[in-house]
Write a structure and sequence with these properties.
The complex is a heterodimer of chains A (112) and B (111). By secondary structure, chain A is mostly beta strands. Chain A has no helices and eleven strands. Helix content of chain B is 0%, strand content 53%. Classes of the chains: A mainly beta (112), B mainly beta (111).
Amino acid sequence: EPEVTQTPSHQVTQMGQEVILRCVPISNHLYFYWYRQILGQKVEFLVSFYNNEISEKSEIFDDQFSVERPDGSNFTLKIRSTKLEDSAMYFCASRGDSYGYTFGSGTRLTVV
Amino acid sequence: RKEVEQDPGPFNVPEGATVAFNCTYSNSASQSFFWYRQDCRKEPKLLMSVYSSGNEDGRFTAQLNRASQYISLLIRDSKLSDSATYLCVVNTAGSQGNLIFGKGTKLSVKP
């Protein structure tokens, strides 16, 4: 079964550092997403990406965040200057024409 | 006002029990509805979509009441492996398919 791959599985970074979270969506999918889940909280939408541009973003997705699809396969989330409150599980997801989402197994980001 | 609201539980039930989860959503223009399952520190996985006519998949039955903005999930003959958090999820109208998650209801099935 096709899957969404995320790396790394766990990233520890110092406050103020830049991090890049990587995702390889399913190859024939068209829509790509980042969600995050702070420990003990609900899964929250960050950003959606379609046709090589951001189609929608939430209030959480401020100027510190950016996304890229640099080479047609990878889909990255960059946090420019991490804060303690950015510590969370970050999930990448992709979908084709239907509403069938596939989530990656996530990257646990710990900011210290 | 919370967009998707669920009873957080936990629901502690014996094997073989029937358990029901409820969910309400605030946006009346919501178009698609789902139940996801999430194991501890894992990604959400689609359990089933929810259709207006109600639908069943083995031991799982989902119902949608658009007038009341209410979604339910019934699990019959609970198994130990059903222990997880069950997430009520809504797709908001007019978006690129972005999902709005409830906080989840935790189920623990005991032997």
